[in-house]
Amino acid sequence: MSRISKKKPALCTDEPLSNSTICQKITLLRNILSTAYGPTGRLKQIHNNVGGHVLTTSTSTALLKRLEMSEPLLKLISTALQHHTTRYSDSGLFMGIFTLTLIENTKKYGLRTSTAIKVYKHLVEQCNVYLKGDSCGCKVPVEFSSCDSLVALAHSMITSKPACMLDSRETQQISSLITQAFLYSIPCNSSGTACFGRTVTIGIEGQSVNHSSVFPGLLLDVPEMLLPGDLERLGDGPFKVVLFGVSLSGDISEVGDVALEVHRGLNPERDLLQQLLKIGEQVVKDKVSLFACQKVVHPVLQHYLREHEVVVIERLGLALMEPFAKITGARAVASLFSLVPMEAYGLVAGLCFQDCGSKKLLQLLSSKHAAISTMVLCHRNETMLEELKVCAMTCQRAEHVLRLTLREPYALLGGGCTETQLATHITHMNQSTAPTTAAALGISHSEFLMAVESFRSSLLAVALSLEHDGQDCLIDLTYGHRWVMDISSQTEVKHTCGCGLLEDRSNLEKTHLNTACQTFSPVFLENNDTQPKVLDSFSAKLNALNVAVEMASLVLDVKYIIKDVN
Amino acid sequence: MQQQLECVSLQVCVSVLGPLESVVRRCLGPEGGSVLFTRDTGETLISRHGQRVLSTLHLEHPMARMVLDCVCAHAKSTGDGTKSFILLLSALLRAIQDSAHMRRKASWSNPALQNLANRLMALSRNELDDIIIHQVTPYASSYCSHHSDKLEHSILDYLISGYISGRTGAGQAEILKHILCEFYYKSKRDQNTTETISFIHSHFNVLHTRVAGLPVGCSEVIEGLVVTRDWSVWTELRGPIKALVLYESFGSSLGDNITVCFQQDWLSRTESITKQKLAYLLELQVNVVLSSVKQPECVLQWARMNHVALLECVDSDQLDFLCNINFPETLSHPQHIVMLKYCKRLQLGGLRCAQLGIYSNAHTLVLCAPAPGLLDQTVCVSRGSMEGSYAGWRSFACRWCV
Lengths: 566, 402
What we know:
The complex is a heterodimer.
Chain A: E1 11-14, H1 20-35, E2 44-46, E3 55-57, H2 60-66, H3 72-88, H4 92-108, H5 113-132, E4 139-141, H6 148-159, H7 168-184, E5 198-205, E6 213-216, E7 218-221, H8 228-234, E8 239-244, E9 259-262, H9 268-285, E10 290-293, H10 299-307, E11 311-313, H11 318-328, E12 346-356, E13 359-366, E14 372-379, H12 385-407, E15 410-413, H13 417-441, H14 445-464, E16 473-476, E17 482-484, E18 510-512, E19 535-537, H15 538-557, E20 558-564
Helix pairs in contact in A: 1-4, 2-3, 3-4, 3-15, 4-14, 4-15, 5-14, 5-15, 6-7, 6-12, 7-12, 9-10, 13-14
Chain B: H1 10-25, E1 34-39, E2 44-47, H2 50-56, H3 62-78, H4 82-102, H5 110-141, H6 148-165, H7 170-188, H8 193-202, E3 208-212, E4 220-223, E5 225-227, E6 241-246, E7 259-262, H9 266-283, E8 288-291, H10 297-305, E9 309-311, H11 316-326, E10 329-332, E11 335-340, E12 342-348, E13 351-357, E14 363-369, H12 372-400
Parallel strand pairs in B: 3-14, 6-8, 8-9
Antiparallel strand pairs in B: 1-2, 4-14, 5-13, 6-11, 10-11, 12-13
């Protein structure tokens, strides 16, 4: 049914960035993202005024999914942000703040957009070269011989999500759990190409966070009517295992919604049940101890198997099929009508009960070193279930970040120190070569310097957004790290810099972050004994930097918007 | 039905073209920007390609639509110059309107306008060609020379880069130009230019892959064919590989209005038919199965047991391309056997894909962009550049008799 109505003409906006409404919207989005950035970031609550789900969060993924933007330019940025966080799980807010600040600063400095785009491209290439090079002061190699850097990375990720409501001890424990789970998922002694194992996450309410732990192997819900006595009777492992991927419920619903014609004297359901029992007989004859099925098992078959001391696990679910197959080496049987082939059987080293708070779970231990582990996260009460899910998601993302680190074994200094160092380095590098670079790009010298200044102040604006309690942010003039004034005394600076690498010294000259200062080249710290306490993922931040500049260039390039409102 | 009668004067013409001009004006030239379209469905389009921008506008006035038809016809025959067309047209009409003041009249009268139109047509038919050929072209021709073979490479580079610079932002133009030239050179090897370009042009749909969420700089050219699906069953395979291409499912395909009949021995009969088919495949010594639909679980199980790699839900265009390029032995219509050089697993920006090595020079162009709107533009421009190069190369080749 189509409604016949007059087609409305499209809404056209010429030169959108000169339009004050659009600029206000850009500023508003930037404020939302800046105030949510960092460990002291403010939580945002999103709800509509007719009831419905209320979301409290400070992560860019959750925020942008729920925020509906009417302005096409902002929607573009939001989509790009979401794609980035799906891929890299981190640095979403950094990317958003940097993109929007770049756009605002380009307007503020009155730069021509084509000039700005060229210069930003040149500068981001310089940043890439610097960050990927050897003498980069903001890069820290991640040593896989000790867990400190890994735990620091996981810790930084968890602390940047204040909605989890974890205190410092709990945060420390969860970070080490994540690192533990990550290390479990790295396969050792595997032949051929190695690939990562998996960590399955289970959430349990009612316990405090301190009871969370990581177990090797797989934890499953205990099947009903399974008693500890049954397990004892099984004895010691290894136990033979069979895994079914088809439904063993004995109904013929897979045929679909068709008419059935049944010959006289035939009872299809009874025939199927006979077949299921035949499978049961074969399984018992082959001395299988654990019978698992992805879907439902017919009660008669279950009763038969239990009588013969076989543990039956049904309703495993698609998500657990792969880890189960990996742990036991069993291959899922897909057909009911033929004998189970010998190669389809698997082995499990041990079965035991585990107590996790009020819940009892069945633990499957692998006989070979399969890289599967289960992380059990506990949280206080049901109202915190939402935070628990955020925690669980955060843990998965933190693990993802650790995996990315395996590919590029570096981490960047957190706490705003990378941004300050990068800004200082870029300004210093371009001051001396400004005339030649400007000529090569085909623009004037002063335009080039203004564009560099715009880039620099955007980077520093991101570092500034980390501070929400009204403290002053400073930068030291030797190493280029970020320092914050101590809350207790208004005149003294905190003991260590933003990332925790440097300690304050009396002769370390500092100046405020948002002032113009003498350019200098940041000194490269070699052979430092102290480790930074706050680290950021290298791949995530590098990609965020590149995509941010590209999105800013794209938005600056748009000179006409046409909105079809039909 | 009421017909609206409107008296069309020169003023109306100029005002109808005004909005078109204002849109097109913003995206002309190397310093020009892009135009962003959005629909209520959320679809976005970013472009600075004149024809694309104008075709997406919803034009009500019949005169505007007529102008758009002319623009499209022009673009079809030349592939370029649509923005210049609109700007020249509006400038011409405005100049005619303003020249009324020079003749000290309020406006042009209809007979005078008709006379002017006839004289302009005579000018364009008789004199314009001469002016361009004798006064303008010599400056351009001094660029190309008679030895076209030596310059073959650079001519194509210029064609591609000229096309791209006018259609994407400065940031992406460099990268895209570089990657498209690389794509062309890698696909070429022993063939000649015309064959390569026409091959790429006709199979572009199959020879490119899109990845969203990465910067444009991550675009690359990969050998062989890339399928944006992960292997359902994977085994390591080496050497020349026999692959089976399937267009339908192995399991019983049930349509509507079918009656399933349960007879005696129905249990064993259901399985034996599928088993026979699978056993036949084993006899053929097939190592890889490429299917355009999802296969039932028993086929996956069979594949795991017999170390056969299986790729499901492949685009049927890609399968057709594989079949055509390989001169396969045809078994029976929905199955073909093709030979592959190798099969690999590939990571493209977090997505797992399959890479198939084929016995021809085809490469796949992987295009990345941070946002889907930008990705569409990148793909469009790349496709268009191949079309444009094809058209440009053909006329160039004709001219210099290559």
